[in-house]
Amino acid sequence: MAQILAPSTQWQMRITKTSPCATPITSKMWSSLVMKQTKKVAHSAKFRVMAVNSENGTINRVEDLLNLDITPFTDSIIAEYIWIGGTGIDVRSKSRTISKPVSHPSELPKWNYDGSSTGQAPGEDSEVILYPQAIFKDPFRGGNNILVVCDAYTPAGEPIPTNKRHRAAEIFSNPKVEAEIPWYGIEQEYTLLQTNVKWPLGWPVGGYPGPQGPYYCAAGADKSFGRDISDAHYKACIYAGINISGTNGEVMPGQWEYQVGPSVGIEAGDHIWASRYILERITEQAGVVLTLDPKPIEGDWNGAGCHTNYSTKSMREDGGFEVIKKAILNLSLRHKIHIEAYGEGNERRLTGKHETASINDFSWGVANRGCSIRVGRDTEKNGKGYLEDRRPASNMDPYVVTALLAESTLLWEPTLEAEALAAQKIALKV
C-alpha cells in the first residue's frame, strides 16, 4: 500500500435493506417453461438444463433460479455461515434461513457443525459451535442475504485450537491497545492455477513464460492472466462492505494482489477472511484454482506474501517516527516468535531474494523492500506515519499477525539489557 489513510468511522459492519436487483421469474415465464418442454434441450458434459424461447430470448431455468431475488416476496434471508477449517487456512461454509433481515451479528443464532469432518473434533464428540462475529452483504445471492464470519467453540464455550480470533479479540480489547486505535492495511497476494494441471494461469503446460519483468501491473493477453477474476473479486468485495482499497497484477505472471484497509483492530482479520472466502467462490465459478502458497513455483520467481502495514495513534501523531523506531526495536527482539506465526512454508519465500529479507535475520530500512520492516519515504519526511511488516506469508492468519503486532509493540516490554543490545545490532544493519 502506498499510504495509510483514515479508516471509515463505521467500524462495526451494519447491513441495510437493499433494493431488488434481479427480476424474479414471472408466472408467464413458468407457463412457457412448462408448456414448451418439447423444445430443444441444451446438453452439457456435466449436466443438462431445459432451454426455451420467450419474448426475452432464451431462458436458462437454472440460471434464472440462481438470479431469483426473494426480497419482494418474503422477509426471510439466507445467511452463509463461514468458518476456518482444521488446516487453519481453509474456509468452510453452510447456509441457513433467518426469518428476517439483521443488522448486527448479535441478532443471529449460534449454530454447529461436524468438527470430525473438518479435522477439528473427534468422531465420538464431533459437535463444534459457531459464534457469529461479523456480517457482510452476500454478493452471490444479493438482496438482504448475508455472509457471516464466525469463530468456533466447544459446547462448553471454550475456543477450539484453530480459533485464533478469540485470542486476537482479547488483545484488541486491552485498554492500552484500544487507546492506540491500531490501524492495519493488509496486502493479500495470491496465485491462480489451471484446474487440471495445477500450473499458473497463462503459463504453457509443462513450460515457463518469459522471465519476470513485463507482468507487474501490466496489460495485454501475453502479460496479464486472470484480470476478470481480480475485477470480479474487487467489485464483489465493495458490494459486500469489505474495506478493499485496491488491486494490481503482481510480478509473477498469474499472480495478483488486493489490499484491505485501513481497518481498525479485529476488523482487519474479519475483512481479510471474508475477502478470501469471496475469492474462493469466484475462482470456483471461473473454474480456476486459488492457492495462497507462499512460493508456488520454485526458482527465479517471486513468492506470495501478505505484507501488513501497521500504525498506532502515537505513530500517526507528531514525533511518531521515534515511536515507530521503538516498535521496530521490539519487533527485532521477537523476530523468531513472529516468524513462527507468519505462515507455513514461509522459509521457501524469505530467502533474501525476490524482494524479501532472509528469514534468519531481522532488518529495517526506509523504502527498502529487501528488509523485514520497511518504512516509507513520507513517514521519514513527515516524522510520523506507519511501518510495513514484509515478513508475513500469503497464507498467514490475519487474526494472528495483527494481534501479534499489537502485542509486541504495545503490551510487551523488553529488558533494558536486551533493548540496548538490539539497538546496537539494528544500528549496524541500517
UniProtKB/TrEMBL annotation:
Which top EC class is named for this enzyme in its record?
ligase
Tell me which domain of life the UniProt entry assigns to the organism this sequence originates from: Eukaryota
Query: What PROSITE patterns does this protein map onto?
Result: GLNA_1, GLNA_ATP, GS_BETA_GRASP, GS_CATALYTIC
Which reaction equation describes what this protein catalyses? L-glutamate + NH4(+) + ATP = L-glutamine + ADP + phosphate + H(+)
Q: Does the keyword Transferase apply?
A: no
**Is Iron-sulfur found in the keyword set?**
no
| Entry keyword set | ATP-binding, Chloroplast, Ligase, Nitrogen fixation, Nucleotide-binding, Plastid, Transit peptide
Q: Name one Pfam family in it.
A: Gln-synt_C
Q: Name one GO molecular function term.
A: glutamine synthetase activity
Can you supply one Gene Ontology CC term for this chain's record? chloroplast
Residue ranges of every copy of the GS beta-grasp domain listed in the record: 77-157
Q: Name one GO biological process term.
A: glutamine biosynthetic process
State where the protein is found. Answer: Plastid, Chloroplast
The residues covered by the GS catalytic domain are: 161-430
The similarity comment for this entry is:
Belongs to the glutamine synthetase family.
Q: How does it assemble?
A: Homooctamer.
Would you tell me the protein name for this molecule?
Glutamine synthetase
List the lineage, top down: Eukaryota, Viridiplantae, Streptophyta, Embryophyta, Tracheophyta
